[in-house]
Amino acid sequence: MALGVSLIVLASGCALAQAADERIYDAIYTVRPDPAARTADVELAVGQSRHFLRELSMDAPAAQFSDFSGDGEISRSGSTVSWTPPVAGGVLRWTAKVRHLRSGDSYDAWIDDDWALLRASDVMPPARTRTLKGASSRTWLRFELPDGWSALTQYRESGGRYRVSNEGRRFD
Fold this sequence. Notes:
The protein has one helix and 14 strands, in the order H-E-E-E-E-E-E-E-E-E-E-E-E-E-E. A seven-stranded mixed β-sheet has the order 4-7-2-1-12-14-13, with no helix packed on it. Mean pLDDT is 87; it is low at 1-20. It is mainly beta. It has one helix at 2-21; strands at residues 24-34, 39-47, 53-59, 65-70, 73-77, 80-84, 89-97, 100-103, 106-111, 116-117, 127-131, 136-143, 157-158, 161-164.
């Protein structure tokens, strides 16, 4: 009888571990630099089997981030953009200015006809999420670059996209 109870407890533990592992939703950022406009068009596509990601809020000042559109509900209040994606996921799109004058005559981000130099935060505003308890993202970054351009990031490339992973964060 003790063996039977042990097997039931073990089986229950596996089911709980599996359920926790399944609380993952996919987030794929796609960045498309537009050298002529000195901007980048950015898309965040979320795929989820359940409504894990309930809401995403970004600190997106209008002077730097504009033209938000996509699936679900999108609202702006001051510099905060909030997105409530559909239950099965969806897409949020925006445009980011890339040339940022830091102080006087120096830039901390630049895009020209032949190249660009920027940080992720220059095109992807800092975000906070509201999720189902225990849910986390599996995040990827893709680039659709002009002919002749290449990308260099701190992340490892696999199949034309980069796996974004920041330990300790549930949304990368």
